Amino acid sequence: MGQFIDPKISEVVDLILSDYEDDRTVNTIDIHNQPDKTAIIDVVEKLLKILYPGFYSDKVYKIYSLKNNMSATIEDVIYHLKKQIAIVLKYNEKDEAVPEAELDERAKEITLSFMKKIPEIRSVLETDIDAAFEGDPAAKSKAEIIFSYPGLYAISVYRIAHELVLLQVPMIPRMMTEHAHSITGIDIHPGATIGKYFFIDHGTGIVIGETTIIGEHVKIYQGVTLGGISTRGGQKLSGVKRHPTIGNNVTIYSGASILGGETVIGDDVVVGGNTFLVNSVEKGTRVSAKKQELKYSSGSPEEKGTEKE
Q1: Would you say 166 and 192 are in contact if contact means Cβ atoms under 8 Å apart?
Q2: Could you give the C-alpha distances from 57 to 74, 119, 144, 185, in angstroms and in order?
Q3: Are residues 63 and 174 both part of a single domain?
Q4: Among residues 15, 136, 198, 304, which is most buried (max CB within 10 A)?
Q5: Range of the domain at 256
Q6: What is the mean pLDDT of residues 80-108?
Q7: What distance, in Å, lies between the first and last C-alpha atoms of the chain?
Q8: How many degrees, rounded to 5, is the angle at CA 226 between CA 224 and CA 227?
Q9: How much is the pTM?
């Protein structure tokens, strides 16, 4: 770069800097009162080490030092998660004027309550691993599922984030599940309610909305959407049941879309691929899309006007 700055460059710099001067959301600069995305992702990765100590832990540690290592990891998560929760609590309107010391104490209580849930989360994840192994003939071992299945990764992060939702922690749960979304292509809102023995096969393109309720022993394939019929109401729809309810022992094949808060899929239902549902389905029903009509053409480009049906 030359010694002197081109006046045209200076003009552009001044133009952009002047755009920072109003009070729009995009101009918010308050580093000390904003959650640290990098720190939250680090917490997620350390929580995975705690959930699966034999799979995510550093290999440099000997087995006899594993407990000491995990103790340090648990303490580290408590410290950093508490710090981030104290920051995001300020985003609750009711807490905007609450003193820092009080928010810090509340963040500590929330963090400890969450950490006490770890054994319960691990117990539920064991059922998810079992469901994946029993439901996928391509799985050679449960270890393979933990190491390599994006569905289990997304479910694991969801189960962490959902507990924080139940503890009324804002923002952080969504940041966690969106991190998993960016890695796996699986979008599970942390507010969704999902039962035990949940299996996502392949997974890419799955969307599970905030108010979705899913029972136990449910299997979902790639490209499935459990969504809302319309979001035109915007914030007026906040807190309203907008997404479907899925019963127990349900299988939903690839490309299916099930929409609407009043849509209930009963127990033991099988939803075929590429189906579109906005109405409830009774228990034990098999739903499938009408077979598409395929047309084939052959020959030279000039002859392709003749089609075989």
Answers
A1: no
A2: 12, 17, 16, 24
A3: yes
A4: 198
A5: 192-309
A6: 88
A7: 66
A8: 125
A9: 0.86
